[in-house]
Amino acid sequence: MAPLPRAALLFFLFAGVCFGLGYPTLNRYDPRLSGGNSDARYYYDMAAGQAPATTGHWRYRVLVPLVARPFCRLAAGRFHTWDPALFGLLCANSLFCAASLLVLTLLAGSILGDERAGLLCALLYALDFSVANSQLAGLVDSAEALFLLLGMWIARRGAWAWLPVLAVFGAPAKETIIPLSTALLVGWRLGDADREKGPWLWIAAYAVVGLVCVSLVRWAVAGGWSAPWDIASSERAGETLFHGLRAALFSKGFLYTFAWLLPLGVWRLGRLPRPWVWGSCAAGAAAGLLGAWNGSGDNAARPLFCAVGPMLCASVALLFFEKTKDSAPS
User: Fold this and answer.
1) Is residue 324 part of a domain?
2) pTM above the 0.85 mark?
3) Is 79 helix (H, G, I), strand (E, B) or coil?
4) Number of domain units in the chain
5) DSSP-assigned states of every residue in 157-193
6) Three-class SS state of 252
7) Chain segment 20-60, per-residue pLDDT in tens
8) Which residues touch 299 (CB under 8 Å, ≥6 apart)?
9) What are phi and psi of 273, to 5 degrees?
């Protein structure tokens, strides 16, 4: 099959899988209620075309709710048991997650040298706790995961000129994408033996364009200008960075997300390209620092998975794929 039709078929397959993984938000539980993902209530309002009941950073993450809104309108009055706004969010998140799985399949397949290993990597990624319980549960983490993977793909292909375009679309998805992706790209270049000057200029352009776009989104939504350093200051939690980091690393969210992924994923990291490992670890460190900075606690594992999850899943895939090949009859 030609590459483009094959990619379209994979995307359709992944979208169906993601919709199934997120189906409990339609008929099993409401993520907005206590015990779910309480932040989902703000994105729910935005998907429904209403102003969210918050003045916090949630209302500036407009991309996923905007994608969800047409699906919400389509479902209104047509499904008796499905909430239209939750249906819209699930459709939007399924599309973003499917795109992430497609990019990861192609990325891991090219790095591991076999498309089957790339598919196994994507499967492991899709089955992690964070995907069903965060990326497909009424939040906007699916967009964060996709834009980080696109940053990896751009770095892998050396298509650095696309970085400013990525920043323009990433800023309205979630403001944390810009610092995490910048750390990823810097780590990628530091891990690459061929350190040309050109990519550094594009990485700097990405950071500048991204920060400007974050401020522009805030201006468009709230009507006032906020400099990046003012935004960072407003997110500062009262606890120290040490206590914030400890709360994140010893939370049940971290345990659920990395319980099997981290022990199995470390075994083949040395077999992966050094730029990918360095970039993912840099993004993971940035995610940990951001979680400690704003006191995310249990939620800090979500961006941490977006940063290091693809690399760890590829390492696990390599571990089992090699075992399968070694045990196959000659």
Assistant:
1) no
2) yes
3) coil
4) 1
5) HT-GGGHHHHHHHHTTT-TTHHHHHHHHHHHHHHT-S
6) helix
7) 999 999 988 888 885 667 889 999 999 999 888 877 888 99
8) 253, 291
9) -60, 135
